[in-house]
Amino acid sequence: MEKGGGKRQLKVAREIQKDLAEIIRRKGMAFFGGAMVTVSEVRMSPDLSLAKTYVSIFPSEKAPEVMEILKENVKTIRGELGHEVGKQFRIVPEIVFYLDSTLDYVDHIEELLKK
Questions:
Q1: Residuewise pLDDT in 10s, the chain (115 residues)
Q2: Total count of domains within the chain
């Protein structure tokens, strides 16, 4: 039984990631102070009520500003997500944004390797 639930979680996570990426793309870089925002991963809670959404931000110096914009607009973004997935899912999950620092980590490693 658990395995099926896991598959559903992954399927829902992929759909939410695709839709959130499109919503963020439509808002455009100007909305985020000139930063490029990418939805790198979505992890769904087992009951599908929460979407932990990881975003990469380039340039990384703009991360605090962009995370604040995302936090301030989470209700609007969730509303737009509802329009996208309303027909497919009974409930629209709550969205919590997290900074994906993988890019910073890669940059750091590259800097270390240059030395």
A1: 334 458 999 999 999 999 999 999 999 999 999 999 999 999 999 999 999 999 999 888 999 999 999 999 999 999 999 999 988 888 899 999 999 977 666 676 677 788 7
A2: 1
Q: Which amino acid is at 53?
A: T
CB proximity list for 39: less than 8 A, separation 6 or greater: 17, 20, 21, 24, 53, 54, 55
Other CB atoms within 10 Å distance of the CB of residue 62? 17
Instruction: Say whether 104 sits in a helix, a strand or coil.
Output: helix
CATH of the domain at 84: 3.30.300.20
pTM listed for this prediction: 0.84
Please, is 103 exposed, middle or buried when counting C-beta atoms within 10 Å of its C-beta (0-12, 13-18, 19+)?
A: middle
Q: What range does the domain containing 17 cover? A: 2-114
